[in-house]
Write a structure and sequence with these properties.
28% of the residues lie in helices and 34% in strands. A 6-stranded mixed β-sheet has the order 4-3-7-8-9-10, with helices on both faces. A two-stranded antiparallel sheet has the order 1-2. A two-stranded antiparallel ribbon has the order 5-6. Bound molecules: guanosine-5'-monophosphate.
Length: 193
């Protein structure tokens, strides 16, 4: 997605060896018009897959996922990271190691929101080593639902997340793919959509 790549080049900040900060349009402040286009592009890419639910993980997956869900006209569910006393029954859980926070946490979705008839599109803001997506896949498959694809806004292709997911048989669709950081500059490789 050309517009996304341009925005990353303009506003993204490279932190250290492998982190990109995009808090001015995706992970903190949200550019809704860019996210709306993100939603439309993902929706177009999966239009023949019969997707019935969009699933993401809080917090930064929510903004793109809600626009994907609007474009597909299906509900969006976000996995919760904190234990919540209002979630009392039928909880599906998975352990996820957070790349940015460097802690493992239990993420959960109430089972009533996923059924064995569901075809799910996973959406996340970043793909690094694939741990967040793997956790979501575990939860979705516990419900007997099917994962149609994993849609990623920004993939860091120099980390092994895509390989992990594709080897396990999942389709990865990324809007921007970063080959690496050279002298603090983002270098892209060809994106999927
Ligand atoms: P993974 O689970 O694929 O290792 O990492 C993906 C998750 O870690 C995403 O949900 C995202 O929140 C976070 N993440 C990974 N890499 C980056 C990054 O370079 N920048 C930001 N802002 N978040 C990242």
């Amino acid at each position: 997605m050309k517009k996304l790549e341009e925005r990353i080049l303009r506003d993204g900040q490279v932190l250290g060896e492998n982190i990109l900060k995009v808090d001015s349009f995706l992970t903190h402040q949200v550019d809704f018009s860019l996210m709306k286009e993100v939603g439309q592009i993902f929706a177009e890419a999966v239009k023949d897959a019969g997707v019935t639910k969009v699933v993401t993980i809080e917090a930064s997956g929510i903004a793109p996922a809600v626009y994907v869900s609007e474009a597909l006209n299906v509900p969006m569910i976000f996995a919760k990271k904190a234990k919540n006393i209002t979630m009392t029954e039928g909880i599906l859980t998975a352990e996820v190691y957070s790349f940015t926070k460097q802690v493992t946490s239990t993420v959960s979705i109430a089972g009533k929101f996923l059924t064995s008839d569901d075809k799910v599109l996973i959406i996340d803001d970043f793909l690094a080593n694939g741990q967040a997506a793997k956790g979501l896949i575990t939860i979705i498959e516990q419900a007997g639902a099917q994962v149609e694809a994993v849609g990623i806004v920004i993939e860091k292709s120099f980390q092994n997340g895509r390989q992990v997911l594709e080897t396990a048989g999942y389709r990865v669709l990324s809007l921007a793919r970063i080959a690496g950081f050279e002298k603090g500059q983002v270098v892209f490789t060809e994106a999927d959509i």
